[in-house]
Specification:
Structural class: alpha/beta
Shape: globular
Largest sheet: 6 strands, mixed
CATH superfamily: Aldolase class I
CATH architecture: Alpha-Beta Barrel
Strand order of the largest sheet: 1-2-3-4-5-6
CATH topology: TIM Barrel
Number of helices: 10
Oligomer: single chain
Order of helices and strands: HEHHHEHEHEHEHHHE
Distance between the termini: 42 Å
Length: 249
């Protein structure tokens, strides 16, 4: 990308935030994780630039900070802006925890309202963002240790995502101060009414099998949907194109 390309992208994000606010959305989130474009700017594994947007973590995070400033001008200071951020890339020469914490401080100082903490890069195997085989509570919340480091360092709310399936664990994370909010994705594809079920007193584990078949369906152009037959999970089958939600437990 040329410098002009980057400036145009910053303004595109700012205009998008303005449109979102005008349309009545409660806030916006910048996706700066999982190896997508903004994540690549932060990662030494991808960012090989030798200009003001490459090299040090100060330079590699410049595009995000410019976006926040531009979005604030467009959407006004009180409009919620969140950032989804990798704690680590979990790849060779990828973003590490220290640099991620550095970015988090900068984002907080720039006026970001909350950080959603994730990690990994799409299609890199066992340590990618949507991990498979989450079949025990010990395997859930796989960015938990990094979340503890973030909570010690930053003063803005932290949203934790990553394999959370159990109500009791979600509650524990919040009560222990390891996260302020809990975010889930795949469980809502299978079970859109999960939060209502938990709120009603049924705290049994989310029914999601963590097999990633829903994501593969999307990648093939067939829509992001749960492929488990309805009779296997209580008739809650639904085909959804929206796959992310957050709740405070």
């Amino acid at each position: 990308m040329t410098i002009e390309d980057i400036c145009n992208l910053v303004m595109a994000f700012a205009k998008a935030a303005g449109r979102a606010k005008a349309a009545g959305f409660d806030g916006v989130q910048i996706h700066s994780a999982h190896g997508y474009l903004l994540s690549q700017f932060l990662s030494p594994a991808f960012n090989q630039r030798r200009d003001e947007y490459g090299g040090s973590i100060d330079n590699r995070s410049k595009i995000q900070l410019n976006m926040i400033q531009a979005m604030r001008r467009t959407a006004r200071p009180d409009y919620p802006i969140l950032v989804k951020l990798n704690c680590r890339d979990f790849i060779e020469n990828g973003l590490n925890l220290d640099d991620s914490l550095n970015v988090a401080h900068k984002l907080a100082d720039a006026g970001v309202d909350a950080i959603e903490l994730s990690g990994g890069v799409i299609n890199t195997g066992r340590l990618e963002p949507s991990r498979t085989g989450i079949n025990s509570i010990e395997k859930e919340a796989y960015f938990r240790n990094e979340a503890r480091a973030f909570k010690r360092e930053i003063h803005i709310p932290l949203i934790l995502v990553g394999g959370i399936r159990s109500y009791e664990l979600a509650e524990e994370l919040v009560e222990n101060g390891e996260a302020d909010y809990i975010s889930m994705s795949r469980p809502f594809i299978m079970e859109p009414g999960l939060i209502n079920r938990w709120a009603s007193g049924d705290h049994s584990k989310a029914l999601c099998k963590s097999d990633n078949a829903c994501l593969e369906s999307g990648r093939k152009g067939n829509g992001v949907r749960c492929l488990v037959k309805p009779e296997k999970h209580g008739g809650t089958h639904a085909q959804l194109n929206i796959k992310m939600g957050a709740v405070k437990c």
